[in-house]
Design brief:
Layout: H1 2-22, H2 33-42, E1 46-47, H3 60-64, E2 68-71, E3 78-85, E4 88-95, E5 100-106
Antiparallel strand pairs: 1-3, 2-3, 3-4, 4-5
Length: 110
């Protein structure tokens, strides 16, 4: 039980450190990507457009979000959105249609 508590505390501290270091706004459970996108813009993050992004012609929300990098094309399906700020990049993972935020991670071109 002690190991579980220590592991939990480490995960909480890591999560808090990532948010503070990267300056990524927090998101609520099942928060829509539209809502979270506004927070990212207000926090100084810039949408990143990749020329090789998946084609989502005909999807209404895709037209307004050039930072969409990948999507599965099914519902429910995962969608990734790319953001940059001060030399750092993050990928926001969302799910469903309309998308809601599932997670955020640092992005590496490696």
């Amino acid at each position: 039980m002690k190991k579980v508590i220590i592991l939990f505390l480490c995960l909480v501290l890591y999560s808090a450190a990532f948010s503070q270091v990267a300056g990524v706004p927090r998101f609520g459970r099942h928060e829509t990507y539209k809502s979270f996108r506004s927070k990212m813009l207000k926090a100084g993050w810039k949408p990143v457009h990749f020329k090789d992004a998946d084609d989502c012609t005909g999807i209404e929300w895709c037209r307004d979000w050039p930072e969409m990098r990948t999507w599965q094309g099914t519902s429910p399906g995962y969608i990734t959105f790319m953001w940059s700020r001060r030399g750092s990049m993050v990928v926001v993972t969302a799910l469903d249609d309309p998308p809601y935020v599932e997670g955020i991670d640092r992005y590496s071109k490696k």
